[in-house]
Design brief:
This protein is of the alpha/beta class. The chain is about 40% helix and about 15% strand.
Amino acid sequence: VTEIATDMLPPNFHTWSWARQACACVLAMQSWAQTRNESAQILVLVPGEKEMNQIEVEWVKTSARRHHRWRVVTITGDTPKGVREELRKQLKKRRCEAGNVNLLVLATAVFEYSITLDVNGLVDCGQSMEVDRNGFLKPVLNNEAQTVQKKARGGRGRDTKYKLVTPSNMAVPSTLPYRMQENQQLSVIFVSVCHGKKLSIIGIVNKDEQAAYVRLHKWGLTTEPQGGNCELSRFGKVVRGYSLEVRDGMVIAICAR
């Protein structure tokens, strides 16, 4: 597996969106395959169906694709096992022979991690799926091990061109500390005081935690401006009877009563 040469890509390639970059890589690999008297069998790896849709939209907008015959196949984790196996057999039977329609396979990581396909082009969109703190799937940048693993999907039976497309506008979640919004912090600290416990809470650093205690004490809701022995004041117990969600307007309204 060797990386597609930079001179085969457009001059302003690195300024494009990752989806447009992926499409440019596909066309460059098709041109390379043509010089070898082969048809293109290219696998594009995306983290999920949303990103797959982005690729499909960008592919339709790519005018250069019309110069050659293409067939696009999409495979996700919901695709039946029989359909996946049939695709694998078709690719093996076609053998990238000249005269075949160029084949573009868009596949999610759910599908690609356990298979080997006979391809002569592999575009890794540099992303994988990860479960966030709320239990939802979200795309994150690949780590080095994931990149090496995906690169190994091609080139096992023939010479293959490879390209890793790194989304430049995408932050790396693992290096960005999660910070809860200020109003949420205040309510969570208030709840911990209601329970009589000093809790270790994800998304609230020590500095923010102390600021929340000071603010609650300033409003007269707690007996101390810090954690530990902090308890609800008489007024704090009244507020607790109305709501556990503490906001400026809500406290002022209770005071007015």
